[in-house]
Write a structure and sequence with these properties.
The chain is built from 6 helices and 6 strands. The chain is an alpha+beta fold and 163 residues long. The protein has one domain: Nuclear Transport Factor 2, Chain: A, CATH 3.10.450.50.
Length: 163
């Protein structure tokens, strides 16, 4: 047995046992349900497919980048995407018993500001029918950074330091 597999098994046992794995089809349905809720700007629907302790990794160097920890922080992130008019259209889904990969078009139509229209890939970890972790990957991170900076400004420095 290779070292990586031994480490994965050991960490699963330390955490408290293996999570219930879904079929690839069940796991894809979780992500499709997420996309349906996202497309409808339905934050309750998004929440329904996420574990309470979900981790969502957003790449880049912009006001929305970083890791969101917990359902509330992730929902706040998706609320902000809605405000920016950011849209997503699935292109491809692939899955196994614990992970789903989606490829989608992500774009915006903001008036008078830079827009983004690029391909994104997300890797989701699914446990017990819920998204427990997701990692975004952008085909054009520079365009994404420019778009998000055009949509969101940071608070003035004294306000940021006061937090």
């Amino acid at each position: 047995m290779n070292t990586l597999l031994k480490t994965a098994i050991a960490s699963t046992l330390i955490v408290g046992g293996p999570a219930m794995a879904g079929t690839p089809e069940e796991n894809i349905q979780v992500v499709q349900d997420f996309f349906a809720a996202y497309g409808a700007n339905d934050l309750e629907g998004i929440a329904a497919v996420m574990d309470e302790d979900v981790k969502w990794h957003i790449p880049g160097r912009h006001p929305l980048s970083g890791t969101r920890n917990g359902r509330d922080e992730v929902l706040e992130f998706f609320g902000q995407l809605g405000v920016a008019g950011f849209k997503a259209e699935p292109i491809y889904f692939g899955a196994d018993e614990t992970h789903v990969v989606d490829i989608h078009r992500g774009w915006s139509n903001a008036e008078g500001k830079p827009n983004v229209d690029t391909t994104w890939a997300l890797v989701y970890r699914i446990e017990d029918g819920k998204i427990v972790e997701a990692t975004n990957l952008s085909a054009d991170q520079d365009a994404a950074n420019t778009f998000f900076w055009s949509q969101y400004t940071l608070a003035p420095l004294p306000d940021r330091l006061a937090e």
